Amino acid sequence: MPRQATPHGRPRNPELDEKLMTAALLEYAQLGRGAFTMQGVARRAGVGKSALYLRWENKEQLLLDSVESVALNLRVNVDTGSLTGDLTALATALLDHFLDPIGWATLRITIDVTADSTDLQPTLGRIARTLRSAAAEAFKRAVARGEMAPETAHEPLIQSLFGAVLMHRLSQPREACAHTRAHLAEQVGPLVDVVVRSAQQQKK
């Protein structure tokens, strides 16, 4: 379930909240930071601008709530019985996310806000923890199965996996994106293998 937007005296309407946040991400994906406005989001969503300001004080908070809503849906925490399977499920979902216009918009927003605002760092930290949680659970299960040594540091492995998937997305020309989305597991396989080998080295 997406996190609820900040209330301003109106009963929550989750369907409308979701519609507004989706509109915000699509608007950002099309126009970018410079041309993004609350008026544009309202127009895209087919509502009055007051509907936005009843929920969010400013466009920065709207964008961050929208990003966090998407991040919650990315918490792919599937126990496949192996570290390779668990990380493949997560990396597949992540690559598919980056290939989607809304997913790509969430990345751009996070980078832009990180560069400009220190006041919103707690929200950014919460988003990062949400995205890392599934990978952290996968590594904990691997330790319990005996696939990894208990003392293996998880955070560098998590960063390696996310960074590798992101760089793979950046290397894809536009015309190759459809093929990539049709073969996600095949695309992330070599990236996952590198992370799994690194995770298991300390066990030897």
Structure description:
This protein has 204 residues and is mainly α. The chain has two domains: 14-68, Arc Repressor Mutant, subunit A; 77-201, Orthogonal Bundle (Tetracycline Repressor, domain 2). The chain has ten helices and no strands. The protein has helices at 14-35, 38-45, 49-53, 59-73, 83-99, 101-116, 121-145, 155-170, 177-182, 184-201. α8 packs antiparallel against α10 (184-201).
Cα-atom Rg, whole angstroms? 19 Å
- DSSP strand content: under 5%
- What string, H for helix and E for strand, traces the elements in order? HHHHHHHHHH
CATH architecture call of the largest domain: Orthogonal Bundle
- Roughly how much helix do the residues carry, as a percent range? over 70%
Number of helices: 10
Number of strands: 0
- Note the main sheet: none
The CATH topology of the largest domain, please? Tetracycline Repressor, domain 2
List keywords for this structure.
204 residues; mainly alpha; Tetracycline Repressor, domain 2; Arc Repressor Mutant, subunit A; single chain; 73% helix
SSE diagram, text form:
Blueprint (H helix, E strand, L loop, with lengths): L13 H22 L2 H8 L3 H5 L5 H15 L9 H17 L1 H16 L4 H25 L9 H16 L6 H6 L1 H18 L3
